[in-house]
Amino acid sequence: SSMALIWLLVVVPYLLGVVAGRGTKQPKEDTHFPLALDWAMNWGEWGPQAFCPQGTYAYAFELKVESEAAIDDTSMNGIMLYCRAPQDVGHDGVKPKVGTLEFTVTSTVQKWGDWQGKRECPEGFLTGVMMKSEAKQGILDDTAANDLEMQCNWSDFTINGGGNPWGTWSSYTTCPQGWAICGIETKVAAASAMDDTALNNVIMYCCDAAASLNS
Fold it and tell me: Are 172 and 152 in contact, with CB atoms under 8 Å apart?
């Protein structure tokens, strides 16, 4: 009968899907997704997406910052991610390996400022981010993005990037358990004859690290 056919074609597959937990995990074809900040400035253009090599994830980062002493202070100019394979990062009280293979990735980086030194997770990978940004200052000096703080290993442990003090922090945005930061895209203002701001916004990307972490 038609009712039996409906039961066979619709109801049974639906029940099997519920039992199997369909819809509770990221689809396999979704290899990465963006973490967008809820507070940042908007001058400039988005640069290229840059990703860690497959099988590696970001465990450390570094900021390029123009110091507070500058007259036209651009503050943050760039963000670099350091990528490693799971076996080479810190775990279970063991520090990250020294002298092992790692990769660096950046999106757009402006010309001002100095790199502030690598900040690394003592264990695991970078899994969350928040950024400090200063609102438009009118006739005063605009700086836009000033500092970055990142979460390690889905925990309460965070690392500060050593930027400048102005502005307000965004909320934290984090990868779900088993996913780690693996890529970056920055919005950077071009050099102008007036008030430069350089880096304004960042999108980090999460990749599914569960298979690598369990292998």
Answer: no
Q: Could you tell me if residue 73 is inside a domain?
A: yes
Spatial distance between the Cα atoms of 75 and 59, rounded to a whole number of angstroms = 24
User: What whole-number distance in Å separates Cα of residue 122 and Cα of residue 92?
Assistant: 10
Q: Which domain range does residue 116 map to?
A: 29-214
- Say which CATH number the domain at 188 has: 2.100.10.20
Give the angle subtended at the CA of 30 by the CAs of 209 and 26, to the nearest 5°: 75
Number of domains in the chain: 1
Host H or E run for residue 186: strand 179-188
200, with CB counted inside 10 A (0-12, 13-18, 19+), is: buried
What spatial distance separates the first Cα and last Cα of the chain, rounded to whole Å?
A: 50
> Which residues are CB-neighbours of 116 under 8 A, at least 6 positions away?
62, 63, 64, 65, 161, 162, 163
Residue 23 lies in a domain: no
Q: Does residue 24 belong to any structural domain of this protein?
A: no
For 73-95, how does the pLDDT look when each residue is reduced to its tens digit (9 = 90+)?
566 788 999 999 999 999 888 98
- Average pLDDT across the chain, whole number: 78
